[in-house]
User: Which sequence fits this backbone?
């Protein structure tokens, strides 16, 4: 069920990417102003992912990007800033060559599709679900899905291990969950 949903979601996201992301990064930056002093985890966009880099660069607090340490292991976040020396990590995502680790309080989460319950369809590795679960065991975390508005679906297929998002930012605006 999720495999077929992923295939459809990739095609929808590819079309949205080709049309451009409009003011999505500016909307995300505005949302992040509420958390300006908190540690943020963003991501380095790959392929047709919506680009959070302008919002990450504008953030007032420390910013980390995900580093995959191994299958089944929660993500760690290495400090990033514009101009940081980057090297290819797992699956080709760029990661900072060196730098301190960041424990985020706010996490920007990439996705393939999302629903208004706050659930997301990811790539199938479970990295973000494990990471959000681990972070939430220690402290309150704000998980922000970042996507094109056309990535919204009526209902994402979910499993008991899936971690919900707190809000979703698209080029069309902000969707608050709960």
Assistant:
């Amino acid at each position: 069920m999720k495999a077929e949903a992923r295939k459809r979601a990739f095609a929808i996201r590819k079309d949205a990417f080709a049309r451009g992301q409009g003011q999505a990064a500016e909307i995300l930056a505005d949302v992040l102003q509420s958390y300006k002093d908190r540690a943020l985890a963003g991501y380095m966009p790959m392929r047709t992912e919506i680009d959070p880099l302008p919002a990450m660069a504008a953030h007032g607090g420390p910013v980390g990007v995900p580093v995959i340490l191994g299958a089944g292991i929660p993500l760690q976040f290495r400090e990033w800033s514009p101009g940081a020396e980057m090297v290819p990590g797992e699956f080709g995502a760029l990661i900072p060559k060196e730098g301190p680790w960041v424990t985020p309080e706010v996490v920007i989460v990439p996705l393939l599709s999302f629903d208004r319950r706050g659930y997301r369809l990811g790539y199938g590795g479970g990295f973000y679900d494990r990471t959000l679960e681990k972070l939430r065991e220690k402290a309150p975390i704000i998980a922000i899905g970042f996507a094109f508005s056309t990535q919204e679906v009526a209902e994402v297929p979910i499993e008991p291990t899936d971690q919900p998002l707190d809000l979703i930012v698209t080029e069309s605006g902000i969707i608050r969950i709960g």
Summary: The chain has one domain: 2-176. The chain has a mean pLDDT of 96. The helical segments are 2-19, 24-32, 53-58, 127-138.
